[in-house]
Amino acid sequence: MKKAKGQKKKRKSKVNREYRNVMLLFTGLFALMVGYLIYFQAVKSRETINNSYNARLETFEEQTIRGSILARDGQVLAYTQAEEDGSERRVYPFGAAFAHVVGYSQYGKTGIEELGNFQLLTSNAFFTERLINELKGQKNRGDSLVTTLDVDLQMAAYEALGNHRGAVIVMEASTGNVRALVSKPDFNPEEIVSKWSLLSSSSDGVLMNRATQGLYPPGSVFKTVTLLQYLREHRLMADGYQYHCEGKITEGDFSIRCYRGSQHGDLDLKEAYAKSCNGAFADLGRTLDAEGFRSLAKELLFDSELPLNLPYSKSLFQVKEEDTEAIRMMKAIGQADTLVTPVHMAMLMSAVANDGVLMTPRLLDRTENYMGDVVVERYPIEEYGPLISMDEATVLQDYMRAVVVEGTASKLQSEQYTAAGKTGTAEYSSDKSKSHAWFAGYAEGEKETLVVCVIVEGAGSGSEYAVPVAKKIWDTYYP
């Protein structure tokens, strides 16, 4: 009898455990579901709604007049004109000058028009105004996006690039604020409908944002990465490095020449960097540890995701064990199959200028209601993290300053600011006479430290074509 009661008690206890386990399982699943709903509402809902394939956007557009996009000082970069017949027209007061960064909102959306689509189609006008509009069957005015863009700097970059193809990106090193972004060839966003067939089929890639999506051989601007790898292997010391430049360096039947056959003579490492000696850096490339070079490139976000909200291409750099010595020499001077985007190069320079720490590039400052008297949301300045150590950044700053003081960017010497950076002249075809002009660097003065990256397609040397663009921007910023 006692045995039967004991067995019954055990069975009851087992059933209770099973019920308890089932309850715990469902409680856990419910908690996970609630947690995901909270996460979705807080983080993912706007991203999902903002997806161009989401049909809810059509409802937003039916109820809201698309809001305005403003420069950092309030100048209007895009707005919607409501016509008397009830139609709407998107107006871009600066025409082509902001085309790629502001973007367009018809035939798809690009640039800030896409990035802030949700905010532009959301109205935070006063409640009574919205109520009256809804009763009348009228649309409410969408919110305004205040960007980090500076009209004076954008126009300086746009005009300095002139009729050349290429790209310019300008950003603050300590905040990540993008102050200007130019890509050419360009287009007038107001003509996106009338000229869509022509623009979308253009062999020039006129709709592509070259600043973020253009992949280019970096040429000598990549020598900064090569320099850093060499310094890492030598505890940040030049280690008595000396090189005698005779205008070219030869490996077997393969030769690398300095630009226009320049013979630099006896050089230490800083002089080789400042004068952009191909021979010296090709010589370094033969000695560098392949695994260390790969690791450094990964740390610097090559072949990696970038902290950027605009569409972009990944920069490409690989060192392989099977690379011949000639290929290693070419890669050390930014040639062979190495490719970078201007925005990535701007980020690297920004980290150097900011003592090794990269700030996340930032285009949006805040959302306001259309009257501008209510701030709906502010977008914080964010730190991505250190790309290099402070000691490494300090050494690179010194080398980059030498490029201006005694090297290929001497045109940037000024009493209003202190500039530093690296020029580049990158071959891009079998025709050795053709090359892209690069400059990437930063300047310090009474205002924020300002990073500038310039590429001028097919123009020639960086010192002749890219440096003057940077100078025009800094002369505008530090008057």
Task: Summarize the entry for a quick read.
The protein is an alpha+beta fold. It is built from 18 helices and 19 strands.
Residues in β-strands, percent? 15-25%
Uncertain parts: none
Q: Please estimate the helix content.
A: 25-40%
Largest sheet: 6 strands, mixed
The total strand number stands at: 19
Envelope shape: globular
User: Radius of gyration, Cα only, in angstroms?
Assistant: 28 Å
Total count of helical runs of at least 4 residues: 18
* Spatial strand arrangement across the major sheet: 4-3-2-6-14-15
Average the pLDDT over all residues and give the rounded result. Answer: 92
Detailed description of the structure:
β14 (364-368) and β15 (375-378) form a beta hairpin. This protein has helices at residues 2-49, 56-63, 99-102, 111-115, 117-120, 127-136, 151-161, 196-200, 210-213, 223-233, 269-274, 278-285, 290-299, 325-332, 342-353, 390-406, 462-465, 467-477, and strands at 64-65, 69-70, 76-82, 88-91, 140-141, 144-147, 166-172, 178-184, 242-245, 248-251, 254-257, 265-268, 357-359, 364-368, 375-378, 383-386, 418-427, 435-444, 450-456. With 479 residues, it is α+β, with helices and mostly antiparallel strands. The strands form 6 sheets. Strands 4-3-2-6-14-15 form a 6-stranded mixed β-sheet, with no helix packed on it. The model has no long low-confidence stretch (mean pLDDT 92). The termini are far apart.
List its traits.
479 residues; six-stranded mixed sheet; globular; five-stranded antiparallel sheet
